[in-house]
Amino acid sequence: MAMSPEDEKVFRDEVQAFLTQELTADLRKAGYETTGTYSAIEACRLWHHRLYIKGWIAPAWPKEHGGTGWTPWQRMVFEQACAKANAPILFAGGLRSIGPLLIEKGTPEQKEWYLPAILSGDDLWCQGFSEPNAGSDLAALHIAARSDGDDFILNGSKLWTTGAHLANRMFCLVRTAKGERPQQGISFLLLDMDTPGLTVEPIAMLTGEHEFNQVRFDEVRVPKKNLVGNENEGWAVAKSLMRHARASNTTSSHLHRAFAALKRLCAEMQMQPEPGLMASFHALQIELDAFDGLELRTRHAASGPHNEAEEKAAASLLKVVATELHQKITQVGMALAGPYAMVEHVEGSNQALMAKEGGLATAKYLGLRAATIYSGTSEIHRNLLMSHLEKGGSLLSSLSKGL
Ligand SMILES: Cc1cc2nc3c(=O)[nH]c(=O)nc-3n(C[C@H](O)[C@H](O)[C@H](O)COP(=O)(O)OP(=O)(O)OC[C@H]3O[C@@H](n4cnc5c(N)ncnc54)[C@H](O)[C@@H]3O)c2cc1C
Q1: What is the pLDDT of residue 271?
Q2: Model-wide pTM > 0.70
């Protein structure tokens, strides 16, 4: 049911009051300075805790499992207010992916054991899907899970695992059998990161930061009760997980956050940008407005009467357009920083600030190169988009022109 204008105002005011009170300057700074997929982990933990205490940590979850019971509009208002205020970007694989999946498909024991610690932030989860030679072609994964009584024994490795060095739990896909098709014989498993035989090796990002890892498994024993869904039927479980992750994606708020940072950069740089650059800056503003419209129309089209093809086409369309626009924003940011994009440290008050902002613009540009790779590359999403449109995503076909 739609809210009355009075109730809308009450809600917006409540969100603002909370942010004013709890989102302290150091948390806003951590949010602003984020260059990767999540903010500095201490800021993430603190912000997670404050949202948890308030009861606002999992707006997209059903109320009976700890959600807020908000409408989609309220969730959007909340997300946009957080982004506008530079709230830290949470390390949220638990909240966005595995939590909703367990609510849908977990056993009662799994729900009881795992969900409270996801909400409180005591458990952090990483996603072990990709492997060497199994990224876009995920079904080619071959990490072996051998049956041994009540356990599986895992050997092999996972690659590009974001936050494996921070997480205490992992959800992963393993091969429990060989099927006729590669999607058969895959199982979905939960495990503890401190299990003997499991090692985490850091991989440096383009920015030089440490965000993802290679995780090696050497005779790692995992109880079979940690299966989600049936043995050998993990592919369908993984598809459900992707659906949940897509549903909780906050596409436009990330872009507005990035554009606000660009405006701030423009103000901090005490140089006169070239007219061509300013034209790019204004063109981005127009593209951002157009994206807001696209997102609204796309979500509207995808929320039609159970049209799965529309829903999947919408997810691919928005992923491609949003990440490519986000990259353009960081590219203009680096150009605006000019020579300061290339220096790390300069003495003198004004110049030191400009060097700091310039260095940050460069780090954001480099960090964003990954956005068109993770969660499915742009090429893969373009392929998917066309295939879903052919299957019946007709409402979206006009919106996808030019991609
Ligand atoms: C920052 C970052 C964080 C990540 N975090 C995680 C994580 O936490 N957990 C996890 O499991 N994975 C994670 N990944 C891995 C990510 O999912 C994969 O990188 C991605 O799926 C691409 O796989 P790949 O790297 O093996 O590239 P490939 O699949 O080898 O692709 C190489 C190139 O070929 C293109 N290509 C491949 N197949 C096709 C095709 N059929 N048609 C057209 N073009 C094609 C791709 O678009 C790409 O340009 C992360 C990646 C990054 C960059």
Answers
A1: 75
A2: yes
**C-alpha span between 342 and 359 (Å, rounded):** 7
Taking the C-alpha atoms of residue 333 and residue 357, their distance in angstroms, rounded to an integer, is: 10
Q: Are 41 and 90 in contact (CB under 8 A)?
A: no
What is the average pLDDT value for the chain, to the nearest integer? 92
Give residue-wise pLDDT tens across range 33-59: 999 999 999 999 999 999 999 999 999
- Can you tell me whether residue 13 is helix, strand or coil? helix
Give all domains of the chain, ordered by start, each with its CATH number: 5-90 (no CATH), 124-235 (2.40.110.10), 249-400 (1.20.140.10)
Residue owning the nearest CA to atom 44 of ligand 1: 379
Give distance in angstroms: CA of 162 to centre of ligand 1.
13
Residue 154 pLDDT exceeds 70: yes
R_g over Cα of the chain: 22
Q: Which of 136, 378, 382 to mutate to test the pocket of ligand 1 (most atoms within 8 A of CB)?
A: 136
157 ligand 1 Cβ < 6 A: no
Which residue in 362, 325, 327, 366 sits closest to 343, CA to CA?
A: 362
Task: Give, for ligand 1, the residue of 373, 381, 383 to mutate: max count of ligand atoms closer than 8 Å to Cβ.
Answer: 373
Q: Is 230 a residue whose pLDDT tops 90?
A: yes
What's the pLDDT score for residue 390? 85
- CA 52 / ligand 1 centre spacing (Å): 33
* Whole-number Å distance between alpha carbons of 235 and 144: 15
For ligand 1, whether the C-beta of 130 sits within 6 Å is yes
Element (H, E) at 145: strand 144-148
Question: What residues have CB less than 8 Å from 234, skipping those under 6 apart?
Answer: 173, 174, 176, 186, 187, 188, 189, 228
